[in-house]
Amino acid sequence: MPEPISRRRPLLHEARCQTCSLSSLCLPLALELGDVSQFDAIIRRRAPLKKGEPLFRQGDTFTSVFAVRSGSLKQLTTEGAGNDQLTNFYLPSELVGLDGIDEEHYPGSVIALETTTVCEIPFDRLDLLSEELPELRGQLYRSMSKELRDDRRMMRLLSRKTADQRLASFLITLSDRFRRRGYSPYSFRLSMSRADIGNYLGLAVETVSRILSRFQNQNVVAVSGREVNILDMPRLISLAEEEEADVSPH
Amino acid sequence: MPEPISRRRPLLHEARCQTCSLSSLCLPLALELGDVSQFDAIIRRRAPLKKGEPLFRQGDTFTSVFAVRSGSLKQLTTEGAGNDQLTNFYLPSELVGLDGIDEEHYPGSVIALETTTVCEIPFDRLDLLSEELPELRGQLYRSMSKELRDDRRMMRLLSRKTADQRLASFLITLSDRFRRRGYSPYSFRLSMSRADIGNYLGLAVETVSRILSRFQNQNVVAVSGREVNILDMPRLISLAEEEEADVSPH
DNA sequence: CGTAATTTTGAATACATTCAAAGATGGTGG
DNA sequence: CCACCATCTTTGAATGTATTCAAAATTACG
Fold first, then answer.
1. Nearest to A190 by CA among A227, A165, A230
2. Which is more confident, A7 or B76?
3. Which of A25, A87, A146 to probe by mutation at the B interface, max B CB count within 10 Å?
């Protein structure tokens, strides 16, 4: 569906890569200043998504990948009877939609977990620009490669880890992602529900809740609603790795 | 370790993309004839791997991706105490090593399940060539994108499917991959052990064995060692999808 | 402020695992 | 070529972890 040509309106947060605080994490990370503006030129700013709004829906025609600017999203794949699988959470600077390249359609819906802004990068233009800019091309390959590695880490989590280990790993991974983005790795807010976490980790909601309660009782974390405080990171890390002999029965 | 320069020896199966039966599935699939020979020029043929031999080991420096020419391989990621996770099986025409691009090292070991030949594609040359050949670049993006989609299907399998559904899905996926390669989708030989299957599907060996026996008793498949015959594909598909009310208690 | 949605907790159940052991297969050397 | 040993596969029984079902408590939101 063609959009009005009058997209030259100055958005409130006239967002350019050159002034974006995420540029050191995002796709143009490897580009020199002159090249960044070429990249910037193909990007389309989007109106912010409200909580629950889809960036796109499963089956929509693939046209673009998206870089998260602020907020967060989840990717859901529906198959058969109302049986969704949450396959990813996306935080600022991460690329959404790379798994749609090879088919006509996006393989899952991507939905905002809170108010979220994204940069739209039309893939045909990105591909063409990647011909001219080897660093951009390399970064694109690396982004996809990293996502492959992350996926395999996730498979390992799903197939070999206990519920406790999954929750601990999840919190550590989130913590690390926040740290990289300049936020506190010890204190953060979950933008997703317990149900989302359970769906993502292959656990029932009740299990997620129970284990968070247990972690709290063990003074590993303090959880209040969606606020998380990691109190004992070393212990959390050891919980994520392997079941150890119960140290403190009380 | 540098190899002798005399690699110009004519290999028994002097393997060129132009005469390769897999060319319609492999990376150069989208290339025109003239371009194929450019692609062919950067490829290095490798001596066949014997069963159990590694193509590369976890931690080895990333230099190349590999296209499987014949045989099959498994990818293993070791983390912590002897706790391997099998994250992928590779069949002819499939690309191995894409998850190593963004770090210095391969994130897992890849090991031949039987006598296996591969084409080595040095990644720096591939990247350069992908600058000149948009179709090659596109195919590379698509290959990675497809692998991302497959990974997410696998996550869904690991987090939502029962053991029966996992085994059924596994057999169907294999069947489909054989069919695409011109082999019978109903009768094939597993190159991997039950332990490998269990590791891959997140199940204990015993569970894999039990379920295969059950499928056999239900006349869905006939399994003899590593020979598999799919007797009732529609039933197998329904088994893969969802638990249905037991139809024939018999 | 009231209603719907989410989260927490408890008890019973189920599915796959673990432990144990027998049976089959395959590769190697005598 | 066959025998032997190691490895792989199959089967059974007991166990355990997470699920499901049920319901209360808390939170979010209009």
1. A227
2. B76
3. A87
